[in-house]
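A favour, since you know our structure tokens better than I do. What I am after is a single protein written out in full by you. Could you add the entry underneath, on a fresh line?


***
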Amino acid sequence: MFSFSGITNLKNRIHEGLLDDDLRESAYEVVLACMLFSGVEIYSTERRKKEKSSRFLSGLKNKRDKRHVESESTEHLKIIDTIRIQMQISEATDTFIRRRLTQFAMGKSYGQIDVPQLSIVLLTSLLRTDFPSEKSYLHWKNRQANVLEELLSSDHKKTEKQMIRASLAKIRNPEEWDIKMSPSERSDVLLTLRQVALTFTSIPVRFGVEGETYYWTTGYHLNIRLYEKLLFGVFDVLEDGKLIEEAKEILKFARLTWSMLGITERLHHALFAWVLFQQFIATEEAVLLDYAICEVEKVLSTEVYNEKEVDYMKSLMCSTIRDECEIRLDLLRSMFSSISSWCDSKLQDYHLHFSQKPSFFDRVLKMGLSTGIQDFVPHGNSEFTGYRLPNEIVTRKIRTYIEKTLDAACNRVTGVATNGSMKNKTHPLATLAGELKSIAEKDLSIFSPVLHRWYPQCAMVSARTLHQFYGEILNLFVKNITHPTEDVRKVLPAAYALEHCLIELYSSACKGSNSHHGLEFEHYPIAEISRSLILDWVVAQHERILQWTGRTFDLEDWEPLSSQRKQAASAVEVFRIIEETVDLFFEWSIPMDITHLQALLSIIFHSLDAYLSKVVSQLVEKQNLYPPTPPLTRYKEATFPIVKKKMAESLIIDDNIYKNLDNLTASKLCIILNTYRYIQKQIDVLEEGIRKSWESVKLYQIDRHSIEKTPETLETTDVNGESVSELFVATLDCIKDSAAHAIRKTSDFLGAKIVFWDMRDSFLYYLYHGGVEGNRFEGVLPEFDKVLNNICGLIDGTIRDLVVSSIWKASLEGLMWVLLDGGPSRAFSDFDIQKIEEDFTMLKDLFVADGEGLPRSLVEEEAKFCNKILSLFSLETESLIQMLMASSEHISVGVNNYKYGQRYLGDAHTLIRVLCHKKDKEASKFLKRHYRLPPSSEYDETSVENSSLSSPLVADIMKKSMSFRWSDKSHSSFRSIRKKFQEATWK
């Protein structure tokens, strides 16, 4: 809150016995008398009917709710009553004063009256019995005596002064005046004083101002104080920052006192401005300051300028304190000097006084410059602009305001920075830069726009001063920088931000004009050292991220975080540390170029690539999932018991591989897949954040160059241009591609593992083993359904179809294994094929799941080859043999129908296996004659047979692999048997 510190009281030689309450009561008597002698009725007959016992506080309360609305017949009586309440006069006192004044004025012609005559009239008319108490009577009587002494004791000879003092002493003495002296003796004493007063009244006036009397100059000290009390009456006694509604009417009545108190138009405006200003300081109501400025404008206006009035006002001398010295000035100079001094005291540290109250700054500055005028001679400009002082004086004053304010502010924030750094454990230079930046921002937004109207270079002065102050300290710090410490991370960005703000502040002085001022200060040496510092920091972060990634991966248990967050915790932690690094990178907030962005993206790429490699490395080779290939046989039923051959033992799998396969459960693989997908999503989020942050960095630098209006330009104005996009393609896009590849690879692995490893016994070795009837798909369906439900519950919804599709493809692959590599225990008749087709339809429906699973079109598309294989089993044996012969022809002319992972209907591998598993005698004869395949009845159906074949032809054809996985050498093996195929005939 504003204090009165800086504003000086005007020292007038007022009698020591006249207190503020005395002056207020006397002022009320003056305004009543002036109204009465101006023809205004102040006492009506209705007042006699009022309740004499009503107290002042009750009247005050009524005014608060609805200002004492009475039933008086005229409006002016209501205003008089309002004045009484405002001046805190009791109703009892008011009543007998009005009555006695009215009685005195009855039968007398209206004319001019002065303050001494008023006091004498009241002393003559009022008696002890008119007052409610002895104390109030004595106080009132002494006040009247003090007023008379103030006005009648100057400019007299010694004998006259002694006579006046003797008379006043009798009045003050209660025993002598009220008991010993008779009424006639009291009248003689008052008559003596009246004669002295009339003598003074007849003295010629000095300045010839209309209505002027002797008491205007000799009693002006008291007159001014009385008029001040009247003016203070316009403020609400309960809300002293507000003017009451009747303020204009009260001022009109106050105008009636001008002739008695020696008030002129210009003096009234000056005094009212003084009163309003004091009330503004006490209440901080901005509107009061606006009113005060308006009154000052009127004082300086030509409309109220009168030379006689000016001479009169210059004669009204009083004392004031300026620079700790008492000086005597005329009244107007004293008031304006006091106002100007107060304004100066605030404006010389405007950051302290107006940062929280910016709306006051413009007003106080305008008041300070206006009252700082020396001659107070109107300059003919009726519009109030504040340009009352000569330009050079204004410039000097405002420059002084700026320099002293910044000096005080810098000293203040230096202490704040030191103390704050100890509490917050931040380097003092970083804290200091933040505090100075706050000062510059306030200058830019609050103070400079106002000061610019009077002093256009104000922003430049502020920017230079703050830049120099901080630069001297910063340079010492920069000289000792060798590597990117935490202090460096805090200080340099803060210094860079401060300098940017100061450049903006400096450049603001040129806005709105065609002038251009180059920066008058050198940049802080931040850009020169930032390049290597940031690169060193990025390299250090790379090592930290790799170490953290390794630790978090080793602790991973591959369990979902929650039902909603199904990715691995390690991936979340990896991205957390990466995002933290990105945030720290952009928190440098110092000059950067594309090299720094490249370094950041590089460490992100290598960190995520290392993590992906670790995750993918958990997978084993897919070929380890497939069962050994049974021997090729021809169908033949056993007619009598024989000793059957045992199947060859399964391939031996390394213990580590076997352990890894057991650890890679379907649930774990789902979490891994979700993690890959999470990486893809987070990379998009990460890229968007980096692009936005990089754009902000470059736009900040572009804006800085634009503000400085430097001729050099940035490397590109397109902050997300081709070079930047290429960096993202080479790093983050590569990671997304790697994740996509990992998803495909892991999905294929998951599908193959479910079918060929997890469901090997229940699906591969069970389905149609020993015959179709009794081992159909109904026995496999519940487990398939359970597996699919488990997968769909665990997998991310965005890759669900991809994963289920991989399982569907693996299921088709498994069915083909059963049909074409099922071993001696499986042979199918035409009737069996019909049942198998029914089972195949059931399998497709399982994956379609009534429209909630895979799209029907996708399922049917993948099932085409399997349908064609089933159709081969339905063909006549002769047609199959012809197709086998045609296949050998194609091979002979170099037509390669084989592709990795696929089989075609014309492929000899496929056709031979169809003939092997076809329950048909003709097919068996053909295979025995031309390929020397052993009969299926020679093998034990409960074990896997030895895969070595007796026929050298078949041994050359068949390779030890699963049905869809052929090596490239198989092409040459077919060529080696081309001739034997061509010689084969069917009989």
Q: What stands out?
A: The mean pLDDT is 82. The longest strand covers residues 317-322. The two ends are 121 Å apart (CA to CA).
